[in-house]
Design brief:
- By secondary structure, the chain is of the alpha/beta class.
- The chain has a domain of 168 residues: TIM Barrel (Alpha-Beta Barrel), CATH 3.20.20.70.
- Helix content is 23%, strand content 23%.
- The protein is built from 6 helices and 14 strands.
- The chain has a 9-stranded mixed β-sheet. The protein has a 3-stranded antiparallel β-sheet with strand order 6-8-7, with no helix packed on it. A two-stranded antiparallel sheet has the order 1-2.
- Strand 11, helix 5 and strand 12 form a beta-alpha-beta unit.
- It is globular.
- Pfam families: Glyco_hydro_114.
- Keywords: Signal.
- This is Endo alpha-1,4 polygalactosaminidase.
- InterPro entries: Aldolase_TIM (IPR013785), GH (IPR017853), GH114_TIM-barrel (IPR004352).
Length: 269
């Protein structure tokens, strides 16, 4: 997660009028998706809305929503389904957040350094004996609310100063564990950032979620997902759409310009 301004569960963001251009239509209807057994797999080019703060505006005319798993209710998920949307459950699986209702269940020994956001600390992802049941319970919550997929965040701790000697192999094992927990519950799962490990993980994940690959000249690293027929849901915060949308369309990314608080406002490529 690269956002320099923290969104919070209690942040009240006024519902703004939807602003932006309509995304270019992909070759096939993005509201549909290829089925892989019971697992939903969004196609490249699928339009989406990512809203993690404020009251969810269910009226945005896109086929995919990504919303907070703890803050949003089964009723909100059902309303989005009634409108024909697929719904992704946002969870932090690589960092502890002190405001979550299960925060007290994480023992101190698995909590590392702060990750740059108030109230958050990296997790020792090597301790799957502790973390697996906690993450399974979180993903059960997503399943019980009817979500179609999971977006697990903070999945690149090995590249950060976590306070633990994490390796790339530790990260691969943990990311695959999270993917497996989602798949066991009939949900798809997205790889969040972690660009360096895409070649090893593209077969384990059903789509990707990326922040600011255009700003950091990294979008080409996401092409294995597109080549595999899997959507890449991409957001920029600081670049104008004219600076990244042409390349996003060429690469078939599902790109948005968003504000840092990740409220309702969006501009699609």
């Amino acid at each position: 997660m690269r956002r320099p301004a923290k969104w919070a569960a209690s942040l009240a963001v006024p519902l703004a009028l939807l602003a932006g251009c309509t995304s270019a239509a992909p070759e096939r209807d993005p509201a549909d998706a290829r089925a892989t057994g019971r697992i939903w797999q969004p196609r490249p080019g699928a339009d989406w809305q990512w809203q993690l703060s404020g009251r969810v505006d269910t009226s945005v005319d896109v086929p995919v929503y990504d919303i907070d798993g703890f803050d949003q209710s089964e009723r909100t998920v059902a309303e989005l389904h009634d409108r024909g949307r697929k719904v992704i459950c946002y969870l932090s699986t690589g960092a502890w957040e002190d405001w979550r209702p299960d925060a007290g269940e994480f023992p101190e020994r698995v909590l590392g350094k702060g990750n740059g956001w108030d109230g958050e600390r990296w997790l020792d992802i090597r301790r799957t004996d502790v973390l697996e049941p906690l993450m399974a319970a979180r993903i059960d919550m997503c399943a019980d609310k009817g979500f179609d997929a999971v977006e697990p965040d903070n999945m690149d701790g090995y590249r950060n100063d976590t306070g633990f000697p994490l390796t790339a192999d530790d990260q691969l094992r943990y990311n695959r564990l999270i993917a497996g927990l989602a798949h066991e519950r009939g949900m798809s799962v997205g790889l969040k950032n972690d660009l360096d490990q895409i070649p090893q993980l593209v077969d384990d994940f059903d789509f990707a979620v990326n922040e600011q690959c255009a700003q950091y000249d990294e979008c080409g690293s996401l092409t294995p997902f597109i080549e595999a027929g899997k959507a890449v849901f991409h957001v920029e915060y600081e670049l104008p759409t004219g600076d990244f949308c042409p390349e996003s369309r060429r690469l078939r990314l599902s790109s948005l310009l968003k504000k840092y608080e990740l409220g309702v406002w969006r501009r699609a490529c």
